[in-house]
Fold this protein.
Amino acid sequence: MHDWNHAEERAWKGRRLDVVDETLRDGLQSPSAMDPPLESKLAILHAMASIGVDAMSVGLPAAGPRATSDAIALAKEISTAGLPIRPTGAGRTTEGDVNAIAEVSQRAGITVDVYSFIGSSPIRSVVESWSLAWLLERVKTAGETARRHGLPFCLVLEDTTRTQPDVLGEMFKAALDCGVARVCLCDTVGHADPSGAAALVRFARNKLDEIGGKGVKLDWHGHNDRGLALGNAMAAAFAGVDGVHGTAGGLGERTGNVPMEHLVAQLAALGVRHEVPASLVAVYSRTALDAIDSSRRAPPPEEPLVPLSLRVNGDETTLAVRPSRTLLEMLRYDLDLVGSKQGCDEGECGACTVLLEGEPVLACLTLALSCEGHDVTTVESLNGAPAMDPLLDAFDRLGAGQCGFCTSGMLMTAKGLLMREPRPTRDTIRRAISGNLCRCTGYGPIVDAIALAADPSTHHEPAPPLPGDEWSPAPLPPHPTRRK
């Protein structure tokens, strides 16, 4: 039998690939995910170790006090239990975020790799008005801060699969100047196909070698928007990356990430890693998904149902809910209004924001029964007849959402603001959305969009193109549905 799967020489040439588990970072951004308690995270960590995970994200420490304390506890557990796992901490390319990771490392007594992310594609430069010089300065800030703390630095380039080669080359050089240890190539929105993934990896490896970065390792982080996450990960592995990222069950923002269960099985079948017993993989999957995926949780059968009547987006609604049911759970799981996102589940991120009698409230902290007889307005109301709401139109025009996870909460906070104050100042807008967290650092366009919705005469200049990018979007004409 001739095996065409092995007809071509593989770039790894017998070496072992690392698998990096992002379940407790990217996995928590799944539409159905909830941030589990620390004891569940520790159980997931040990399940990761049992299937041979080489590195794992302890989260984004700068996101808040709980994120910091959980990250410290996870890193400490790796150290005290002697788990053969390399801890990594996610952060933006800012001094504050890197300092937060350094604090985790110092308090846990173990080295934590700094995985600093920044958007590199022309889409971000246009939306955010980022110049190449500004991007390089951000890389320098993060890299030098990590080096000052003595921590390994990984530059995570969001949307690498749509970034020009010359821009990548410049960012690689900036990272090398800071002593970068790894570069993570990201298919952030699931854009790539396997041939594109392989081409990007080969380019990155050749470019790094060419500019003096032979010792720099490459990671691959991909999403599943086209259903190609696993195929792209394998293509990247064939082309020569040193580590591939995955999550339990493929949990992740939008349609998810590379499923870790499939990844370890495929790499074992190719002889790149040892085979993991199916029983251990099953325990890993069950431990993570039962703790994180809220859709797997059945309501307690002994809790009685209570009738509830309210108005949702103007419609009279009557249903029966458990006394402990939150407004967010009722909207998402009883009424199928999934625009409101289940993020932190503790009132920190603002992704669940809806309007209650016209005032923004955190739906994850509001009991459904407390809304008896009241008006609830969700983000779905903004796309109603006869025309799109000017706020939604402005967000669309100015690219005020990237991954989209925070967008519904931002929109509803902004809607409440404009109902109270039709012509707010930019400072007022910033204060109003200060409780809504954007992990993609998109605050500039969000403020611009809210200001545009408040005053349609606001003029927005598109950002200049990056070097080598000959295309620049023209200003859009006035929208026919925009109020005068």
Remarks:
- The two ends are 72 Å apart (CA to CA).
- The chain has 15 helices and 13 strands.
